[in-house]
Amino acid sequence: MKPQLVLGIESSCDETGIGLVCTQRGLLAHRLFSQIDLHAAYGGVVPELASRDHVRRIVPLIRETMQAGGCTLQELDAIGYTTGPGLAGALLVGAAVGESLALALNIPAIPIHHLEGHLLSPMLSVTPPAFPFVALLVSGGHTQLMRVGAVGDYELLGESVDDAAGEAFDKTAKLLGLPYPGGPILSKLAGQGVAGKFKLPRPMLHSGDLMFSFSGLKTAVLTATKKPDFSAEQIPDLAAEFQEAVVDVLCAKARAALLQTGLSQLVVAGGVGANTRLRERLTKEISKRGGNVFFPELEYCSDNGAMIAFACAMRVQAGKAVPSVEGAFAIRPR
Ligand code: KG4
Ligand code: ZN
After folding, report:
1. Are residues 146 and 264 in the same domain?
2. Residues with C-beta less than 6 Å from any ligand 1 atom
3. Which positions make up the signal peptide (predicted)?
């Protein structure tokens, strides 16, 4: 197959991301516009505002990306866009632009599952992992362990029964009175505190399976703040203990997943993959047991267009590009 040039569009939440990938030359360019400032005043993402801003940003970002990659739209072979999960209105902007552009250029439009983008994003690194590997997907909406055999070969090993890890970070940050976006701010504060001064549970640590639960942890934090002797100076210590509890569970279950599958490579993806403490602990614990951990570059941890273009290019290359919305959900457990 001759090298294919693929444009990727990400608009599932509050980031407009565009990526340009060549199946032979790799990532040529990508651009990102984050709406954090737009939503900060509301303490969270306002779906209606998110959709409208995607409309404003998406075409200029496509132009910029094409220019930065030194290519013209007419050279494109396929367009991948995030089809879900995400905010309906926001997703529709990317889908409408992707499908229309593909129609005008007479090339396929390929819906890409958002989590597949995250899952394959560590392969954008200079030293990418090789199949097969275990993926720990930790984002704002999902906490999942998957066995990844090849592009499109994903087996769900375990997931959260309630809140996702990122969601727990965000909700806990909110109840501690921290500004949006809570996760990274809470994690920064945790760096100034000492874990162990408070005692929080490690939910489902000994459940004997690869399932997670994080909603009780958030409630335990709330209970700690309600104690009469609790003061604002203790917030960094409480944040540190919260982070350690999440990291303890994620590390233990990731190790168990490697053991269960007999694999030695762990790939971490999604926004929480940017967490410094998680990176430190996983690197130490997995390498001690002879395994390897791969993290996406920080810029590819949170939502971005490069990962969607890359996932789409890998599907095109593997002959698994299905130009239908149903096809995108091939990521579902087997
Ligand atoms: O993958 P992502 O950008 O979006 C989703 O697909 O959900 O993940 C966003 C999540 C948010 O919950 C955010 O608080 C969390 O990732 N996050 C972090 C850190 N950076 C982002 N959580 C903990 N520590 C961080 N450094
Ligand atoms: Zn995401």
Report:
1. yes
2. 118, 139-141, 166-167, 169-170, 181-184, 187, 270-272, 274-275, 302-303
3. none
Q: Is 114 annotated as a binding residue?
A: yes
Expressed in angstroms and rounded, the spacing between residue 228 Cα and the centre of ligand 1 is 32
- pLDDT, averaged across the chain: 94
Clarify whether residues 74 and 169 are in a common domain.
no
pLDDT for residue 180: 84
* Lookup: tokens for 171: 């909700």
CA of 2 to the centre of ligand 2 (A): 31
> pLDDT per residue over 242-278, tens digit each?
999 999 999 999 999 999 999 999 999 999 999 999 9
Cα(312)–Cα(82) distance, integer angstroms = 10
Could you tell me the residue range of the domain that residue 217 belongs to? 129-295
Q: Which amino acid is at 306?
A: A
Residue 141 assigned as binding residue? yes
**149 labelled ligand-binding:** no
Average pLDDT over residues 316-325: 80
Statement to judge: residues 233 and 184 lie in one domain: yes
Quick: pLDDT tens for 186-209.
999 999 999 999 999 999 999 999
Split into its structural domains, the chain has a count of 2
Choose the residue to mutate in 16, 268, 272 for probing ligand 1, maximizing ligand atoms within 8 Å of C-beta. Answer: 272
User: Quick one: tokens of 22?
Assistant: 């060549």
Instruction: Let me know whether 254 and 140 are in one domain.
Output: yes
Residue 170's φ and ψ, nearest 5 degrees, are -65, -45
- pLDDT(331) > 80: no
What's the predicted TM-score (pTM) here? Answer: 0.91
The verdict on 176 and 238 lying in the same domain is: yes
**Contact criterion met (CB below 8 Å) for 243 and 186:** yes
Residue 11 CA, ligand 2 centroid: distance in Å? 10
Q: Has the ipTM of the complex gone over 0.85?
A: yes
Residue whose entry in the numeric block shows the structure tokens 């640590």 = 205
Cβ-contact 311, 115 below 8 angstroms: no
